């Protein structure tokens, strides 16, 4: 068997294989035996029908087609085993010559993992950018905390205002006829939040509890219900309840109610410290992201479509899971947006291509930097995943599988690599403020509410998803 291997476009390889005539002769004999065992031929027992009778029943080319198909499959497998090629997909095969008494010649094109030519990933001209924490940002967090601990007090001596909490009853009609979904006896809302159609809540301003108002209003042209989109409806509304939000006094007592704070000054100091730690953590993450983008931009590789297609499917699974967490089915989403699955895949594809590039480039840099993951590190990461995702049994089963552990290993390897690159830059720039790893951060002695209010911008690692780009 002669095999010639040449590179082909989009990270694929072309194998040209030539087999001697006797290989086809043996394949034909084997094909006759196989076909005779599974073909009923009158006058012959199973496995005993001769070739000419099989071809009379199955067609003149049946035996040769069966022989060539099996021969090409076996020869392709031999060629792959005898080479360093690791195919990502089944091959696309072209039969060039398949005549008895002549050599069998075929071509097989198969996608392989791309070769990554690294460019510069160290000599970038950007630096970490650390957000400055000023008094205004501290006061904004305090305002959020006061809002969280606000109370709702009934309003009796005035009409409704924007920002009030109301309960209304309303009936909607078109030409005097109620329409489906247009009426309710009790609807809670915050006036001004535009929970209902635009302009509806403006008519509630000034109403007192027990008062009614009637008005006409047009539904938006893009309203999901096509029967109502752009149509004018008449609404009769009654204000049933009205409450206003009253913030707690900003004093030492409020600070003490949030945890172990002696006074308001101690609360402000803790908030500032948390915001500054979050700013350092965010600066480190964003700096790492810029290093990755720099490395990817300078690398050269050609992606096979199969890897992009696989990543598109991963992103589709992530999207379905995101919708499910919001209680929305994919079918309902597609109906409301007027999109198809094909449209979604077209939207996902550019990001999928970028994600695959990032995985492959970081894997190549990890090889160059000698970054690996020990079994002990993998087990520790698995333990952390168990604790973090303890309620998701399906995900835990995946993480315990061979593929799941492979995913964790590759994810941990990439994390170690990026942290190493950041630390190397910091070591080379001792004048720059330290950017500690998140696990080096010392938790503050404060209530969970303060932690939540000050941590809203901290980068949160994503849930594990499967991808074959790096392990291919």
In words, what does this structure look like?
- This protein has 472 residues and is of the alpha+beta class.
- It has 3 domains: 2-111, Trigger factor ribosome-binding domain (Alpha-Beta Plaits), CATH 3.30.70; 135-140 and 262-454, Trigger factor, domain 2; 151-246, Chitinase A, domain 3 (Roll).
- 46% of the residues lie in helices and 17% in strands.
- The strands form 2 sheets. Strands 5, 6, 7, 8 and 9 form a 5-stranded antiparallel β-sheet that branches.
- α4 (135-148) packs across α6.
- The radius of gyration is 34 Å and the shape is flat.
- It starts with a strand and ends in an 18-residue tail after the last helix.
- The model is unreliable at 440-447 and 457-468 (pLDDT under 50).
Brief summary of the model shown:
The chain contains 13 helices and nine strands. The chain has helices at residues 21-38, 51-58, 62-81, 135-148, 252-257, 264-298, 305-325, 330-337, 341-369, 375-388, 393-400, 402-428, 448-454, and strands at 2-8, 12-19, 92-97, 104-111, 151-154, 165-174, 177-190, 212-218, 232-246.
């Amino acid at each position: 068997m002669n095999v010639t291997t040449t590179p082909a476009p989009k990270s694929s390889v072309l194998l040209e294989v030539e087999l001697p005539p006797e290989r086809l002769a043996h394949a034909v004999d084997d094909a006759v035996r196989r076909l005779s065992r599974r073909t009923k031929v009158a006058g012959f027992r199973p496995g005993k029908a001769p070739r000419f009778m099989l071809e009379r029943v199955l067609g003149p080319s049946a035996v040769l087609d069966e022989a060539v198909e099996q021969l090409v499959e076996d020869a392709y497998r031999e060629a792959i085993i005898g080479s360093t090629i690791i195919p990502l997909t089944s091959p696309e095969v072209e039969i060039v010559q398949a005549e008895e008494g002549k050599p069998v010649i075929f071509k097989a094109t198969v996608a392989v993992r791309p070769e990554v030519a690294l460019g510069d990933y160290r000599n970038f001209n950007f630096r970490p950018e650390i957000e400055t924490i000023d008094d205004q940002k501290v006061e904004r967090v305090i305002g959020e905390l006061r809002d969280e601990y606000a109370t709702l007090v009934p309003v009796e001596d005035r009409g409704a205002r924007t920002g009030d909490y109301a309960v209304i009853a309303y009936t909607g009609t078109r030409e005097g006829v109620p329409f489906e979904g247009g009426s309710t006896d009790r609807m809670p809302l915050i006036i001004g939040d535009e929970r209902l159609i635009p302009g509806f809540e403006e008519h509630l301003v000034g109403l007192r509890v027990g008062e009614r108002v009637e008005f006409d209003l047009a539904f938006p042209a893009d309203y999901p219900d096509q029967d109502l989109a752009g149509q004018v409806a008449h609404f009769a509304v009654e204000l049933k309840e009205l409450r206003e939000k009253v913030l707690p006094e900003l004093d030492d007592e409020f600070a003490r109610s949030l945890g172990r704070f002696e006074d308001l000054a101690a609360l402000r100091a803790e908030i500032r410290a948390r915001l500054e730690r979050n700013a350092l953590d965010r600066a480190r993450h964003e700096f790492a992201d810029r290093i990755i983008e720099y490395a990817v931009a300078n690398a050269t590789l050609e992606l096979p479509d199969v890897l992009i297609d696989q990543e598109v499917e991963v992103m589709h699974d992530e999207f379905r899971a995101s919708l499910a967490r919001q209680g929305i089915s994919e079918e309902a989403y597609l109906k409301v947006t007027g999109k198809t699955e094909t449209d979604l895949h077209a939207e996902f594809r550019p990001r999928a291509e970028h994600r695959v590039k990032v995985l492959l480039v970081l894997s190549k840099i990890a090889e160059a930097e000698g970054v690996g993951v020990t079994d002990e590190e993998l087990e520790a990461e698995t333990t952390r995943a168990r604790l973090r995702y303890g309620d998701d049994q399906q995900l835990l089963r995946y993480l315990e599988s061979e593929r799941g552990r492979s995913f964790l290993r590759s994810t941990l390897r990439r994390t170690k690599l990026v942290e190493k690159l950041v630390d190397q830059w910091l070591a080379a720039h001792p004048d720059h403020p330290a950017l500690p790893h998140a696990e080096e951060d010392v938790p503050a002695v404060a209530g969970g509410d303060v932690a939540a209010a000050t941590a809203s911008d901290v980068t949160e690692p994503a849930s594990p998803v499967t991808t074959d780009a790096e392990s291919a």
